[in-house]
Amino acid sequence: GSKAVRRIFTILLIGIFYKIAMRAQPRLGLLTSCPDGEKAWPKKYPFCGGVFQSPIDFHKDILQYDSNLLPLEFVGYNVPSTDQFTLTNNGHSVKMYLSPTMYIRNLPFEYAASQLHLHWGNRNKSEGSEHTIGGKHFAAELHIVHYNSEKYPDITAAMDKADGLAVLAILLEIGPFNPTYEKIFRHFRNVKYKDQMALVPGFNIQELLPNRLDEYYRYEGSLTTPPCYPSVLWTVFRHPVKISQEQLRALETAMYCTESDDPEPLEMVDNFRHVQKFDERLVFISFHEGKLHDEKKKSCIYLVLCIKSPKCCREAMKQVAVLTFTFNFFLWKRNFPKKSKPKSKN
Ligand SMILES: [Zn+2]
Question: Which GO terms describe its cellular component (predicted)?
């Protein structure tokens, strides 16, 4: 009895110490982060407290399948290495300017590329995506911003118009090293501080996107930073892209919101906006919900795939058992009357 009590007490103590240690951590560092205080945004920027705000959480109740949502097509995304992109630290994110010769087809208008940037968490909490799926955060999120080049001459003219912008969102999670993302990340050391710039040789921007371009969430929302204009047609890809733990760490620790000569440098961390209320609106999806699961089940019929997953194997065995049983039952039913017939004749 007393042994168990002592053990529980020890566990509790460890737990309390752990909590205190975790809480003390940010204070131990001299540097603090630079949150913009998103709660105060609406005061200065009324749109931030308005309608159609982003990001949002994608959950079952608001999703609706739409068969008209075609895979997007990207024109001019494969940029030769002789061209160069400008990468900059704008004090809120790391941003790379893109050329309007890159554009998206298959949206209601033609949308030309303007810039891409990232949102991320911090080294202790790698949950920096803006959009969430079923309440789940991803490690980080890439945004590729486009403007309606059919109706407006440039992004400034387009950004406050209802049909002005189209943003592609790519969720990032930890996995193997990603050589394409490294083409941007390797320049972080040159844009550590606000207003610094670096040149990035051209590469195929489409390689930053997931392989599956046909499955995505589509809704009408806003910029996730002030002035929060409700002018964005969002495409959030269903499948995340993987970057390595080291690459994510580099993103989470490389930059400061402050200029290089600032005596009190502020780390650029947690530069994501929290999810916004989303009622009386729908998110359209280009895929059938739960298709991932169904596909797995279907493929389980083929025992060949058993080698790949024990869970799949169990499912396949179950299906084989059911089939065998049904088949035997059918045989038994067919044979039964034959056996009983001669008996009735006697
Ligand atoms: Zn963004």
Answer: plasma membrane
